[in-house]
Every structure is written in C-alpha cells, then in structure tokens.
Design brief:
This protein has 389 residues and is α+β, with helices and mostly antiparallel strands. The chain has three domains: 113 residues, Orthogonal Bundle (Butyryl-Coa Dehydrogenase, subunit A, domain 1), CATH 1.10.540.10; 117 residues, Butyryl-CoA Dehydrogenase, subunit A, domain 2; 136 residues, Butyryl-CoA Dehydrogenase, subunit A, domain 3, CATH 1.20.140. The chain contains eleven helices and ten strands. A hairpin with a 5-residue loop joins strand 6 and strand 7.
C-alpha cells in the first residue's frame, strides 16, 4: 500500500496552501453552519468567489461546463487543504450535490445552463431533501410537484434547510407521480427561493447556527428547471453522493484539534505537574491520534476505490458509520482531557483554548446529514454482510 503522493500532486498541494495562507487570517475560525454573523458571511462569500475565480469549484468538471478537467485526486487534495485551513467555503450543495446530479443525469443543455454559474459562484444552492417525516427514510417524502401542462406547482415542506435564507435556489426533491413505488415517483428541481409562495421559519441548532423549515405554497417552477428525467430523482440523489469522488478532510480537522490540544496540555499544569505528563491524559491523546490515523486510512481507501473503480466495501457505508460515530467520540474525549471547563464557550477568561473545546463538542454532535449512523449500519448489514432485513 502506497500512501504517498507524486511530486506533481505535492506541487498542487503547495499551490493550494500558498493561496490559503495569503487569503485567510491566522487562527481563522468560522463555520457557516454555526455562525450567523453578517461579517463572517460576507467574508465567506468573498473567499468562495476567490476559490471560484481560480476555477477550483469545478476543478474536475469538463471544460465545456466551466471546469478544469483535473483528476479526482486533485479534488481530494484541495479538499484536504481547505479543511486543514478551516476555510469558509460555502455552496457545497451547489458544487457537490447539484453539480453531481447534473453531471450524472442532466442533459447537455442543462449542464451548460446550470454548471458554469455554480463554477463561478454566481448561484448559491441549498438542499431541499429532508422533511419532518422523511429523513433517514427519504423516499417517503411527500412534497409534491404537479404538472399543469406549462409548469410545475410545488406544495409541501422541507426541514434542516442549511443556508436557506442565504441561498438563491434549492436542490429540491419532490414527488411527481404518487402512483409509482416511492423510490420511482421522485423528481429533482432547481427551485427559486425568492419565488412567490416560498417561506421560512428558523430552526436553530445546539451550536448557535440557523437552519430552516422551508414551506411551499403553490410555488411555480418552470418546466426547464426539472433536472434530468421525470421520476429518476432517487437515482440522481444516490448517484450524487459518489459521482464526484471522495473528498478528504476529516483527518485534517482531527489533526488540527489534536495538535492544539497537545500544545495546551504542554503548557497547563494540574496537581503540580504539566498536564501532558499525566498518564490518563497521555492515554487519551493516544486514542485521539489513533482515531486520526483511522480516518486517514479510510479516506485514502475511499480515494483508491474511486480511482481504480472498485466498489466500496459494505455498500459504501463503512466510512460513513466510522466518521459519524467517531466525530462525537473525538469531541467527547477532548472534553474529558480538558475537564469541566471544556463546557465554557466564548471569550471568558476561564475558557480553555478560547472556548474551542465547547464549540467542537457542540458541532461534533451534528452527524445526521446524509443519513444517521444507525441507518448506515443497516446498509452495512444488508449490502455488506448479506443479512436479512
């Protein structure tokens, strides 16, 4: 097994790092899912447009659709470095979910229409999949899109709409044929979030950010805003998660936090000696280091499988289960090392590491997106091990 990168790939990594060093303040820490301040959002949008200006949003897309036709491994490296730098890149739904659906199932005309604006960061997408009664069992969604002969009329509700009040359009899954089996009657649309009949109510998360409930009351969607074919939405949703190739990053986030925690343990005393000398603390730090390396190996395995066109193990659910369950465990272990003061947030003088452990813990609980680990375990059991439902 070779876990090294070529000299050309390392040169690409250096190019990304040089850009990030020039564009991001030292010790930058801002997350679009948990920080709602206007200044942070303005900076994030400006930064993402700079990424787009280099062609990096559509890095692997064909050139005719606004991309650079670079290999998937370059996208993996780019994402590793963005995560390592805590870069405030927004519009993941646009350059991830929506773009992958278009590349997998869109017509040539649709790709020409929708992809270049995403690549230039001119169109900001939010996700319209989850509903109050359709989350892990997404195919049970009930939001409807009825064809009038001229356009579609959408009615229903979505929830957990991250970035909804900031975005321009919605990657919307709606039921277009209730007579079909639930996986076959779904279609995908690009819905204008400023269209009459669209409204929001706030859904604040535990870390202080805002998601949304999104409501549709006779919203008109033009015929040309259907993505792909009618009734193939489920295929596009499933294919979108894997079409663009894996993105590295979780191990880089863990690396950063472990390094900061280790430095803090080296400077703080407890019971008359440096915390780093405490056997319990050293054991917990070793656990965090092992988790980080597990994340790295699984990330690289996912990249290797994609590059060599090998099907992922356990129906593609193994990496997801590990990452979703490891993230809160990682944050919990940090809290155990730091102690009760790890719960203190903000600029309080009592907050260790300027309150970062508290923020990490609250953000680490967020592991439901894309399906809960419990559901992914069922995928592992059925598709990976062949067990009955």
């Amino acid at each position: 097994m070779d876990l090294t990168f070529s000299s050309e790939q390392e040169e690409w990594r250096d190019e990304v790092r040089t850009f990030l060093t020039a564009e991001l303040p030292a010790d930058f820490d801002w997350n679009s899912e948990y920080d709602e301040d206007e200044e942070g959002w303005a900076f994030a949008l400006d930064f993402t447009r700079k990424v787009a200006g280099r062609g990096w949003i559509g890095l692997t897309w064909p050139m005719e659709y606004g991309g650079l036709a670079r290999p998937a491994i370059d996208r993996f490296i780019l994402w590793e470095e963005l995560i390592r730098a805590n870069a405030p890149v927004v519009n993941h739904i646009g350059w991830g979910l929506a773009a992958n659906a278009l590349l997998a199932g869109g017509t040539h005309e649709q790709k020409l229409r929708f992809l270049p604006p995403i690549a230039r960061m001119e169109t900001f997408w939010a996700e319209g999949l989850t509903e109050p009664d359709a989350g892990s069992d997404l195919a049970s969604l009930r939001t409807s899109a009825d064809w009038t002969g001229e356009h579609w009329i959408v009615n229903g509700q979505k929830t957990f709409t991250t970035w909804g009040t900031h975005a321009d359009v919605l990657y919307l899954a709606a039921r277009t044929d209730p007579a079909q089996p639930k996986h076959r009657g779904i279609s995908i649309f690009c819905l204008d979030l400023r269209a009459p009949g669209v409204s929001f109510s706030p859904l604040h998360n535990i870390a202080g950010g805002r998601q949304n409930h999104t409501y549709f009351d006779d919203v008109i969607v033009p015929a040309d805003c259907l993505i792909g074919e009618v009734g193939h939405g489920w295929d596009y949703i499933m294919g979108s998660f894997y079409a663009g190739g894996p993105m590295g990053g979780m191990e880089c986030e863990q690396e950063n936090r472990l390094a900061e925690l280790t430095r803090w343990c080296s400077t703080v005393g407890r019971y008359g000696r440096p915390l780093i000398e405490d056997p319990y603390v050293r054991e917990r730090l070793a656990e965090l280091a092992v988790m980080t390396e597990i994340s790295r190996v699984l990330s690289y395995e996912g990249l290797s499988n994609f590059l060599h066109r090998r099907p992922p193990r356990f129906g593609g659910a193994l990496n997801t289960v590990v990452s979703k369950e490891m993230r809160p465990q990682f944050s919990q272990t940090i809290s155990e090392i730091v102690g009760p003061l790890s719960q203190v947030r903000g600029e309080s003088p009592a907050a260790p590491m300027t309150g970062r452990p508290a923020e990490w813990f609250l953000r680490g609980i967020n592991n439901h997106a894309g399906g809960t680990p419990q559901v992914k375990r069922m995928v592992m059991a059925t598709r990976g091990l062949g067990l009955p439902r």
